[in-house]
Amino acid sequence: MGKANKSPSPAVAKEGDYSALRELFRPHVESFDYFLDKGLDEMIESIRPMVIRDPNSSNTLKIILEKGHVLSPMRGARPGVLPIYPQECRQARISYHGEFKVEVCFQYNEGAQIRHTFNFGHLPIMLMSKLCHLRGADPHKLVFHGEEATEMGGYFICGGMERLVRILVLQKRNYPMGLVRNSFLKRGAGYTDKAVVIRCVQRDQSSVTIKLYYILNGSARLGFWLGGREFLLPVGIVLKALIDASDREIFTSLTCCYSDKHGRGKGVVSTQLIGERAQIVLDEVRNLSILTRTQCLVHIGQYFRSVMEGFENDDYITVAEAVLKDYIFVHLENNHDKFNLLIFMLQKLYALVDQTASPDNPDALQYQEALLPGHLFTVFLKDRLQEWLRKSKRLILEEAAKNKGFDLGNALEIRKFLTKYTTSVGRAVESMIKVGNVNSRSGLDLPQREGMTIHAERLNFHRYISHFRSVHRGSAFAKMRTTSVRKLLPESWGFLCPVHTPDGEPCGLLNHMTSTCRVSSFYNSEGVIKNFGEMKKLLSAELVRVGMNPVLPKIEQTGPPEVLHVHLDGCILGTIASAMIEKAVNYLRTLKLLAHSGIPEDLEVGYVPPSFNGAFPGLYLFTNPARFVRPVRNLFILSDGKQSIELIGPFEQAFMEIRCPDGGDGGRQEPFPATHEEIHPTAILSVVANLTPWSDHNQSPRNMYQCQMAKQTMGFCGQALKFRTDVKAFHLQVHIPNIVWMNFHLERMLLLQCYHTQVMTWRMP
C-alpha cells in the first residue's frame, strides 16, 4: 500500500485545486446565472401585455412589462450602502436577497408610452452566482468572511437557513413519447389507453404538455390544460387551422409512411389501415361543415373565447391564433413546423396502435431530463408576475365600477393600484424557497407542488455534497404501490449511480448522479451563452451537405423505412435516406470532436435505427439544456493521432456500442464493433460510492449501506465550525489516520481528505 502524501491546507490551496469540486455544483450555479443573464429578460418578454377597458367609456389602458433588474444583496436601499455577506445573514436569521425592480409601461388609448419602475420586493440570491459578493473570491477572502475555503455555493439563505432546490426528474422536452396508460381511458367514452405525449418547453423554460389520444373510431383528439381544465380538440380541426392545406395534402402527408412493397419488413411503421383513419379524421371536420382554415379558426375561437383571459372582446380568429401560439407546440414559432410535428405524432400514434412501433418507457432515463433551480425560479416568478397583473386589473375594474369619474389616463391613480401587490411577488418567491411549496393556479406543468426545496444539512461533507448530486423522481411516486419506477434500468448506466440510493421509502426514487455525469446548460465550455438559432442554421447546413432534404416549404411525400425524419429539439428539419443516415451520424460525431466546428460539444445525436416492431426510427438531435451528459472516449482517431473525449446523453447511449476497457468486447459480434470506450471502470459510481474501500469485494447491499453510513457518521461539518449557526453539527476532536486511500486522486481533487469522518466498513474474505 502506497504512502499518501500530505494534502495541502484549503486555506492556502490554489484556485485550480477546486476545479473538480466546482464541477459538482455547476448545474445549480449555472442555471441561476442564466436566469440573471438572459432568462429574466426572456421571461418578462413572454408575458402578454394586460389590456384594461373602461366599463364606463371606450378608453383602454395597456400595461406592458419591459425589463427586469435584480440587484446584489445590500444592507439597505439607500445608495452607497455596504454589501451584506452570507455569514451575516445566517447569524442574524435573515435572507440573503437582492432588490427586484421591473420597468412597466402604461399606454393610454394607443398613445405614447409612459415608463415607471416598480419595486417588487426582494428575490433570494444563490450563493456563488453572479450577484453574490463571494463570486470569484479566493480561499483567503472566503475564510475572512466566515465561509469554508472550499465554499462552492449553489444554495439560498432564507431566514438564516440554507435551502437547496432539489433536482427533479421531468419528461424529456420536445420529444413525442408513445405511452400506454389505463388513465387515458378515463377521458371519456371511446378513448383508449394509447396516446403520444410531448412536453413542449419555451425559451423562458415554461412548458405545456400536449397529449394526442387515440379514439376507437380511428380518429384522435388533441388535449392540453388551460386554467386547471383539460380541453380536447379533434385533430383534423387543428391540422386545418395551422396552415391552409387541402384535404388531399393532409391525406397524403399522413399516408406517406405506408407502401405496399415493404409489407411487414424491417423499419415499417404503418399498415394499410392508416388510409382509412386519415379519411375518418377528415370526415370529422367535414361533418361539422368546416371546409376552410378560416372556418376552423372561427370554430376554435368560439370554443375558447370565454376561457382565454384578456380576449373577451376580440374576434374569434384572434382568439384562435392566440390558442395556437400559447398552447399548441409552444416550442415552435412557425405554423408549418407545428403542422409537420402533428403529422409525425399522428403517424407514431397509429404505429403504436398497430404494434409496428413499441411504446416508450417513461421510467427510463433515456426519456427524462432535470429540473434545475434556475429554471424553477424563472417559471415560478413568471407565474407570480402574471398573477400580479390579474390582481391589479381586478382592482382597477372594481374602482372604475364604483367611481364613474375614474380616469384610466391618470397615471398616478393607476400607479397607486399597481403598487398594492408588488411586494407580494418577492415574498412568494422567498416563501417557495423557504418552504418548498409551489402555490400556483396553473400548476406550472410540474410533477409536484410540494417538497421542491430541502435543507442543505452539513452533518458531514459527504452528506452535504450528496445533496447537490441527488436526483429525485418525484414525491407522488413514493405513495404508489408499484415498484416499476424504482427499478434500476440499463439506460441509467454511467449517469445514475447503481448503489447510491437510500434504503426504505425513497429507495430507487432518490438517486445520485455519477462522479462524471454533468447536466447541459445554456453556457458552452468557454462560459458564453449558446446561440441556439445559429446552432440550428449550422446543423441544418451540415445535414444538407450529407444528404438531408429540407422539409419546408413543401410537404413530405414519403416516410420510413425509405427515409427517416431528422428532428432538432422537437422541430422536423427534413428527411434523409436510410442508406445515408449512418454516414450523417458519423459526420456529426466528427464535428463534435473538432474544436472550431461550431457544433456544440454536448450535442446529443440520437439515431434510432429501423427495427422490427421496435422504437419509432429517426434521427433525433438535442442541444437544449437540462440534459444528462457524460464523457466517453471516442475510438475515432483524429488527424493528430489522438483519441478525443465525447459527451453523450442517455437517449443516444441506448443505441451506441460502448465497451469497457477492462472487460474486452463482452460478447460483441463483428457486425457491431465498438465505437466508444469507457474512461474508467468506476465512472459508473457516484462521488460517495467511489470512496468505499474494496467495493468490488463487498456484497451488493453492503455498498448501498456504506453510502448511507458515510452520510450519517460523525465528522467535520466544515472548517469554519466556529462561524456556523447549525442546530446540529458534529466535530471530531481526535481522528484516526486513514487505513487505506481508495481512489486517492479523486479524494485529493475534491479535498475530501480535509473532512474526516468516522466510518466503519466490511471486507469480504
TrEMBL record:
Superkingdom in the source lineage: Eukaryota
Ranges in coiled-coil conformation: none
GO cellular component, one term: nucleus
SUPFAM superfamilies cross-referenced by the UniProt entry: beta and beta-prime subunits of DNA dependent RNA-polymerase
Localization: Nucleus
Gene source species: Zea mays (Maize)
Protein's UniProt name: DNA-directed RNA polymerase
Residues of the RNA polymerase beta subunit protrusion domain: 24-406
Catalytic activity: RNA(n) + a ribonucleoside 5'-triphosphate = RNA(n+1) + diphosphate
Molecular functions (GO terms): DNA binding; DNA-directed RNA polymerase activity; ribonucleoside binding; zinc ion binding
Chain's gene name: LOC103643410
Pfam family, one: RNA_pol_Rpa2_4
